[in-house]
Design goal:
- Its cofactor is Zn(2+).
- This is Formamidopyrimidine-DNA glycosylase.
- InterPro entries: DNA_glyclase_Znf_dom_DNA_BS (IPR015887), FPG_cat (IPR012319), FPG_Glyclase (IPR020629), FPG_N (IPR035937), H2TH_FPG (IPR015886), Ribosomal_uS13-like_H2TH (IPR010979), Znf_DNA_glyclase/AP_lyase (IPR000214), Znf_FPG/IleRS (IPR010663).
- By secondary structure, this protein is of the alpha+beta class.
- The chain is about 25% helix and about 20% strand.
- The radius of gyration is 20 Å and the shape is elongated.
- It binds zinc ion.
- The site of zinc ion (ZN) has 7 residues, from loops.
């Protein structure tokens, strides 16, 4: 599942490729991808001749600004955006939507699992509508500090890792980065929200920013050398410090990294360094 840094990488890559171009034709091959109350015919018709003015991101939502409307794309499990030349031959099997652009390239949404979504909303309304309205601030926002997280989370008796995954509180932290953030902050995922003080929440805020920024920077460099037009999926080799490192020595103390299940999610941590 692409996480926030991967989605940011997708957005940066798409920006370079398609901003300023016009959509000449839109073709929806999987109608259920559209979650807004509009028919496929109307959707395709309405998109015609709209210019992609900019592409932004809120949490893991990719937002195409098209004049007075926005198209909001969420990749969910396996969604990917590809740009093809019109003469490229490609397998349409998992392509759910094709946008023919004014430079004659095809911008295609591919999704083997078909969990991805499109919302189509007014540019003046979308911030106040779901899915965007219910999303919490992301850790890259400097408003997210120890006191902010404490006020938001310290009443909860849920595990801190589970709380960090709740996108309505803080957005953009997925399973992998939650493990990495808690390792960096030296905080056990088994703490409850109400076990932590402001100083500990400050460590979480600082580690969240540090790790998400680093991952975005790495994603940016990796994807540029990785034929972005043939795979804007944002997957990049990440130097994970704890996630996936079961039984391997902790980078800080050498003790074996432990893997447990926490509310059904694979969770990696070091018992010695994280308390
Ligand atoms: Zn350790």
């Amino acid at each position: 599942m692409p996480e926030l840094p991967e989605v940011e990488t997708v957005v940066r890559t798409l920006r370079k490729k398609v901003v300023g171009l016009k959509i000449i034709e839109a073709q929806i091959l999987y109608p259920k991808i559209i979650k807004s109350d509009i028919s496929v015919d109307d959707f395709e018709e309405d998109l015609k001749n709209r210019t992609i003015e900019k592409i932004s991101r809120i949490a893991k939502h990719i937002i195409f600004h098209l004049g007075d409307v926005v198209l909001i794309s969420h990749l969910r499990m396996e969604g990917k955006w590809f740009i093809y030349d019109k003469n490229d031959s490609f397998d349409k099997k998992h392509i759910l939507a094709i946008f023919k652009l004014s430079n004659e390239k095809l911008m295609c949404y591919q999704d083997t699992r078909k969990f991805g979504t499109f919302h189509y909303q007014g540019v003046n309304e979308y911030l106040n509508l779901n899915p965007i309205a219910k999303i919490g601030l992301e850790p890259l926002d400097m408003a997210v500090q120890g006191k902010y997280l404490y006020d938001l989370m310290a009443k909860s008796s849920k595990y801190i890792k589970t709380i960090l995954l709740d996108q309505t509180l803080i957005s953009g932290i997925g399973n992998i980065y939650a493990d990495e953030i808690l390792f960096d902050a030296s905080i056990s995922p088994l703490n409850k929200g109400n076990d932590l003080n402001v100083e500990m929440y400050q460590r979480i805020a600082d580690s969240s920013r540090k790790i998400l920024k680093k991952s975005i920077d790495m994603g940016g460099t990796t994807i540029d050398s990785y034929q972005p037009e043939q795979g804007i999926d944002g997957k990049f080799q990440n130097e994970l410090k704890v996630h996936t490192r079961k039984n391997e020595p902790c980078y800080k103390c050498g003790q074996k990294v432990i893997k447990i299940k926490l509310n059904g999610r694979g969770t990696y941590y070091c018992e010695k360094c994280q308390s």
